[in-house]
Design a protein that fits this description.
The protein has 13 helices and 15 strands. The chain is α/β, with parallel strands linked by helices. The chain has three domains: 71 residues, Winged helix-like DNA-binding domain superfamily/Winged helix DNA-binding domain (Arc Repressor Mutant, subunit A, Orthogonal Bundle); 126 residues, ATPase, nucleotide binding domain (Nucleotidyltransferase, domain 5, 2-Layer Sandwich); 160 residues, 2-Layer Sandwich (Nucleotidyltransferase, domain 5), CATH 3.30.420. The strands form four sheets. The chain has a five-stranded mixed beta sheet. A five-stranded mixed beta sheet has the order 13-12-11-14-15, sandwiched between helices. α11 links the parallel β14 and β15.
């Protein structure tokens, strides 16, 4: 890797170690020759880094890679099962969850707990119980990644005043977790975490510019531009659900009118589906599956209206950001194929540049935001911050 202006040797070494670790985690097994070619580092530098990782127990031999021609087959390396683990903590309106995962984002343990008006006063204790339940049997995790409902104050590690969040507000979640566990804690928006999971391990691995769209009671987004999460100067996440598609439209809890989530969020769409289909207790995914099977389903008017609203909001985002793809997740993962095809067609028709934008489902089903919580910490590891 070429040394960047203003980067000292220690910082450069840390970044190189993070880069090698990222390749082993996301694309391994790889040989030293592969790693050298992919990173631009010399073979000697790669060998030195691998020797360090081997001493730490991070890597192991996976076997030989078969190559044509004479000479020895290169040795394939992979991350060891003994490499450090990470904890991801997911905070949402009606549920919190914790996972223990490895650096390949394989889930090793998982625990969930409901969150509601009755237990909101015990919010911190609920989080502690979840983390304790997934704590590794051996060793200490690298840290805890938190993916939360927003808005968030990332600089001060705080959950601010999220709408419909049972009166929970201004929680210094990074501080309370650090004080209890003595580990690094990284806070990010739930959909930024989901975008990182898709970037490193999921449906967006081939894209440097994409939007992750999370459809739930509200509408959330995570934006990756030139391979990096896009945030404001103050550190705030994107809020696509509060982009207005009608300035005289439906009132929103944020105080504005016409916000996208007042037309396409499940707090609006799900009641209509239940009413139209005469099924007062059915979840959103049931209506989507039925519509997929039956083109005459009573669910289609509500789903079509939702799709048109999403197309309107996403067209604005596409004109602004020019992404290569949009990854649909959370409950949006269940939308019928016809809805995704319509989204792709309508966005391409309405956008200024008529290049098509690929619409793809999350590689993690409806769980990208849960799996991605550890990714906000893993992103720091891959950038070398844990080797300084």
């Amino acid at each position: 890797m070429e040394q960047r202006k203003g980067m000292n040797n220690d910082t450069l070494r840390s970044r190189n170690r993070g880069l090698v670790l990222k390749l082993l985690a996301t694309e391994g097994p790889l040989s030293r020759v592969d790693l050298s070619r992919r990173t631009g580092l010399s073979k000697m530098s790669v060998s030195n880094i691998i020797a360090e990782f081997d001493e730490l127990g991070y890597v192991e031999v996976h076997g030989e890679l078969s190559v044509q021609g004479s000479g020895r087959n290169p040795i394939a390396l992979r991350l060891s099962d003994a490499a450090p683990k990470l904890i991801g903590l997911f905070v949402f309106r009606d549920e919190c969850a914790a996972i223990l995962c490895d650096m390949r984002l394989n889930t090793l343990k998982e625990s969930r707990a409901a969150l509601n008006n009755d237990n909101a006063a015990q919010f911190a204790d609920i989080l502690f119980g979840l983390v304790d339940s997934v704590w590794p049997d051996a060793g200490t995790p690298l840290g805890i990644g938190v993916g939360s409902i927003g808005p968030l104050d990332l600089r001060n590690g705080m959950i601010l005043d999220a709408p419909r969040f049972h009166g929970i507000h201004h929680v210094p979640i990074v501080r309370i977790l650090k004080e209890r566990y003595g580990l690094p804690v990284q806070l990010d928006g739930q959909y930024d975490c989901a975008a990182l999971a898709e970037k490193y391990f999921g449906a967006a691995r081939e894209y440097r510019d994409f939007i992750f769209l999370g459809v739930s009671t509200g509408i959330g987004s995570g934006i990756v531009s030139r391979g990096e999460l896009l945030r404001s100067a103050a550190g705030y996440s994107s809020e696509l659900g509060h982009m207005s598609i009608d300035w005289r439209g439906n009132p929103c809890v944020c105080g504005n009118r016409g916000c996208l989530e007042t037309y396409a969020g499940l707090q609006v769409v799900a009641p209509r589906l239940r009413r139209d289909c005469g099924r007062p207790d059915a979840p959103f995914e049931v209506f989507c599956r039925e519509a997929e099977r039956d083109g005459a389903s009573a669910a289609w008017p509500a789903l079509n209206s939702m799709t048109r609203a999403l197309a309107s909001g996403l067209t604005n985002a596409v004109n602004l950001l020019d992404p290569q793809a949009i990854v649909i997740g959370h409950a949006g993962y269940y939308l019928p194929d016809q809805c995704l095809a319509t989204l792709e067609t309508e966005i391409t028709r309405q956008r200024l540049a008529k290049r098509p934008v690929k619409i793809v489902r999350s590689a993690f089903g409806a769980e990208a935001q849960v799996r991605g919580c550890a990714c906000c910490l893993l992103d720091r590891v891959f950038k070398g911050e844990f080797f300084r």
